[in-house]
Amino acid sequence: MSGDFDFDHELLADLVETPGVPGYEDRIRALVRAELEPHVDRIRSDAMGTLVGTIEGANPAYDVVVAAHVDEIGFIIKYVDDEGFLELDALGGWDPRILRAQRVTVHTDDEHLPGIIGAVPPHTLTEEQKESKPEIKDVRIDLGLDAEAVAERVSVGDLVTMDGRLARVGEFVTGKSLDNRVSVLAMIEAARRLDAPDVTVHFAATAQEEVGLRGASALGVDLDADLVLAIDTTVANDVPGFEPGERVTQLGEGAAIKLKDSSVITNHKLHRRIRRIAEERDIDYQLEVLPAGGTDTGSLQRAGGARPAGAISVPTRYLHTPTESVHRDDLAATIDLLVATLETEDGTHDYTL
């Protein structure tokens, strides 16, 4: 690995390691507020927990919304059994196969408790157990405490996140919630860099994206945007077992300009303009066609009426796992492309189709 990363690595570590599952984004929202507030003219949050920092533009009649969701996938405790083991309900999309033998953190009102999701030794498994398909309902958390201590310290409704710190691996950063904290970093960095924009820009740290794009849906009614731009992660299946056409994006090839996902077909005038900006500024980019999975882009495009919508994505390996991985150059390119897109938006571009 050569040199320092071309972004605020310390802030990214804070963002990744601060908990914030859907509906309970309080801690991560407080951190984002503290980082955004010095760089915006005003800041507010709504009843769903979406935070909006606004920079007034020279043309106050033209509004751009930049959205990056702050929530991470996690769990809520639904039952504490008589032996002190915790049963879970998922908050967001988990693959149960990756949960065995993981470390977790249980967040109560008063403390953060380390826990583990155990795995029974293979020596004692029956053939039927070996062939069974894992499900979330079968997952149990072990706190290493006796049942009485667990009952005193943990209750139904407490929250669970994966345990993991941001790490550098070669040219990558890897961590438990890069989806979507890398995009939150990009949004904060854009607010830092944006100086006297021609249009008013609303930086929205949206809530509850991982459970159905809910925060963005409500925000789209509250803000009458003329243009919306979402920042999120996207699939990079550039690993063994996938054909070239199945990769969606590749790490190290630049920021991804979204053409579609299962929630949206982006405005083609907008995504072509973003592509031209990347070429003019010599910013590495690739085009994203995501066959499954939705983002805030779709909700913002149609909540409160039809709006021109686009998205810039950060290619990410191993999405929705504790080892999500992003290439340093792709994140830097995403930040540069977002800033360039906002700097060159003057409210005169015609995005009507």
TrEMBL record:
Pfam families linked: Peptidase_M42
Provide the cofactor list for this protein: a divalent metal cation
Entry's Gene Ontology molecular function annotations: aminopeptidase activity; metal ion binding
Which residues are named in the active-site annotation?
Answer: E209 (proton acceptor)
The record's cofactor note says: Binds 2 divalent metal cations per subunit.
**Annotated positions binding Zn(2+) 1:** H69, D179, D232
Positions annotated to bind Zn(2+) 2: D179, E210, H320
The record's keywords, sorted A to Z, are: Aminopeptidase, Hydrolase, Metal-binding, Protease
The organism's place on the tree of life at top rank = Archaea
**Gene3D superfamilies, A to Z:** Peptidase M42, domain 2, Zn peptidases
Specify the signal sequence span.
none
Which GO BP terms apply?
proteolysis
Stated family:
Belongs to the peptidase M42 family.
Q: Which PANTHER family does this entry report, sorted A to Z? A: AMINOPEPTIDASE, AMINOPEPTIDASE YPDE-RELATED
Report what the protein is called.
M42 family metallopeptidase
